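ok so I'm stuck.
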Amino acid sequence: MTLLQEQIASISDVTADQRAQRLAQAGGAWNERIAADSGTAQLTYTVSGRGVGSVATEIRAGKHRFIVDEPGALAGDDVAPSPVEYALAALISCQVVVYRLYAQALELTIDEIEITAEGDLDVRKLFGIDESGRAGFHDVRLRVDISGPDSADQYEKLRQAVDAHCPVLDLFANPVPVSVALS
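replied:
not stuck anymore, here's the structure
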């Protein structure tokens, strides 16, 4: 069994009732915390990384460590997904969380959810060939496949709630001030 299979096995044994209970408890706890002190709603995430190999990066996020790399065509060793693949993965995983959270809040059932993200990127800016375009994605498409007993209209309302509340979708859809400093 691979590490990924072991990780999936350790989390896939959650029943729908257990998921609902965990979501309700987490939501209730955050509501209480924020009601008592609105400052607790402000979170800062810190992730760090160091260069390894040709162009790979070892990322540290809390207790987790993982590698980001590039395919051989972009000078990498192709030992892990690329930064832009991780960006799409972050979008997909955030969507899954928010779909689960708002399905619970709207009393909808999701039996299965699978999301596919496609992002179009023109590498001419990356390589300094043409400075007129964007360095990042110029188009991202999500396909959300949900199965469950609720109506298509109810799942569409769920999608609208998710689109309005997903933090990573917001990062993709709206400019975010970023400052960079060399130290």
